[in-house]
């Protein structure tokens, strides 16, 4: 089984560097994906209310042959549930659907700045942690000004900021802001929907190392120190995504991947995304 590095969080807990996300996996498929991933060595499972499969994610967790305390389970408070009371109820709802007594990590899914509710939502997460319903708390898609407002108004710094990071959208400014505040960057859509698989920088590193383009990109994330949550429904791909600890990219290869930055998001802009 792959030995996955544990990243230290600012709340004295640890986060597995590699895991899986269950976004866009249907209910029928999710239990098998989760249980198979755990069998292969995954301990970090990233879900969210809006994915619509929290219950089936929980079924996969129950099928997995490891103890609950060996797993690191994440869910997220959706935009429509922002605000103190709604967010507390959303956390209870996620726990009920997944079938857990606590979450290892709860995130605010998007800042939704036009709503101006993310500080009160953050206070709800702080109190849920104090009540033992959540072990660590963080955010997703927050920009530096959003982070600073949370910290300034509550005195509590997020442990994690889950953001889009991939070779064509490296989000360097937010990553640097996270680092400066002691926040772990966690990459969603880490493979960038495969749009850089054919780039010479990726192909050449893959040929040199005997790895796939996806493994090269995941290794790039690992060497940058991110937590990474790629999604797959196939056992061989799940295994391949874990098989990135036995090689290193050279400095020149890391620089060549960095040069692929194109400012091309796969997902929405956090400054304007307000979907319910």
TrEMBL record:
Q: Where is this site: Lowers pKa of active site Tyr?
A: 76
Which InterPro entries is this protein grouped with?
AKR (IPR020471), Aldo/ket_reductase_CS (IPR018170), NAD(P)_OxRdtase_dom_sf (IPR036812), NADP_OxRdtase_dom (IPR023210)
Source superkingdom: Bacteria
Which Pfam families does this one have?
Aldo_ket_red
Enumerate the active-site residues.
51
The segment(s) forming the NADP-dependent oxidoreductase domain are: 18-260
Q: Which UniProt keywords apply?
A: NADP, Oxidoreductase
Catalytic activities: hydroxyacetone + NADP(+) = methylglyoxal + NADPH + H(+)
Q: Which residues of this UniProt protein bind substrate?
A: 109
**In the record, what terms sit under GO molecular function?**
oxidoreductase activity, acting on the CH-OH group of donors, NAD or NADP as acceptor
Family listed? Belongs to the aldo/keto reductase family.
Q: What is this protein called?
A: 2,5-diketo-D-gluconate reductase A
Q: What is the lineage of its organism?
A: Bacteria, Pseudomonadati, Pseudomonadota, Alphaproteobacteria, Rhodobacterales
């Amino acid at each position: 089984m792959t030995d996955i590095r544990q990243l230290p969080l600012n709340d004295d807990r640890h986060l597995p560097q590699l895991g899986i996300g269950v976004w866009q996996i249907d209910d029928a498929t999710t239990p098998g994906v989760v249980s198979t991933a755990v069998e292969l060595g995954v301990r970090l499972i990233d879900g969210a209310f809006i994915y619509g499969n929290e219950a089936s994610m929980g079924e996969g967790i129950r099928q997995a042959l490891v103890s609950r305390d060996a797993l690191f389970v994440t869910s997220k408070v959706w935009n429509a549930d922002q605000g103190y009371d709604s967010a507390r109820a959303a956390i209870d709802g996620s726990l009920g659907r997944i079938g857990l007594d606590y979450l290892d990590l709860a995130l605010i899914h998007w800042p939704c700045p036009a709503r101006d509710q993310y500080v009160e939502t953050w206070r709800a997460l702080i109190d849920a942690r104090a009540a033992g319903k959540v072990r660590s708390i963080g955010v997703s898609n927050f920009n530096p000004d959003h982070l600073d407002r949370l910290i300034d108004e509550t005195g509590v710094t997020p442990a994690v900021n889950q953001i889009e990071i991939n070779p064509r959208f490296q989000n360097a400014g937010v990553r640097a802001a996270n680092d400066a505040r002691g926040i772990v960057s966690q990459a969603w859509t880490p493979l960038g929907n495969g749009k850089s698989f054919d780039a010479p920088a990726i192909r050449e590193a893959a040929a040199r190392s005997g790895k796939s383009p996806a493994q090269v990109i995941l290794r790039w994330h690992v060497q940058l120190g991110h937590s990474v949550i790629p999604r797959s429904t196939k056992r061989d791909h799940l295994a391949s995504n874990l098989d990135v600890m036995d090689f290193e990219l050279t400095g020149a290869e890391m620089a060549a991947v960095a040069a692929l930055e194109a400012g091309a998001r796969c997902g929405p802009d956090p400054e304007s995304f307000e979907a319910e």
